[in-house]
Description:
Layout: H1 11-25, E1 52-54, E2 62-66, E3 71-74, H2 77-93, H3 97-114
Antiparallel strand pairs: 1-2, 2-3
Amino acid sequence: MPLTQQESPGGAAVMADQLRHILDVADQPNITVHVLAGGATSWHPAHAGPFMLFDFRKEPSIVHLEHLSSSAFLYAPGDVRVYSDAVANLTRLAMAPDESAGVIADRVKELEKGTR
């Protein structure tokens, strides 16, 4: 469940700044931002928790997991494949980058209205 502007540390202004930053970095050629719509009625890999999949040109991919009190890197090809498949699945479920940027921009406008 996403944080509301009342629950967000720093409030609506901070949340709006963070979302604007996401829009700014999404303009970089090596970054793609996809929004996954809330309210899913069936399980998908995002429900399992956050992870980062690092793909390199000259080295094998690795996965980074963060937990409350520790973190882990996964290097085994079978483990990495599970997360690569999860990324592919989530990409199919997510909005296209342009649509995602529109949703983020709309949310920024909503947050800004609440701070005036």
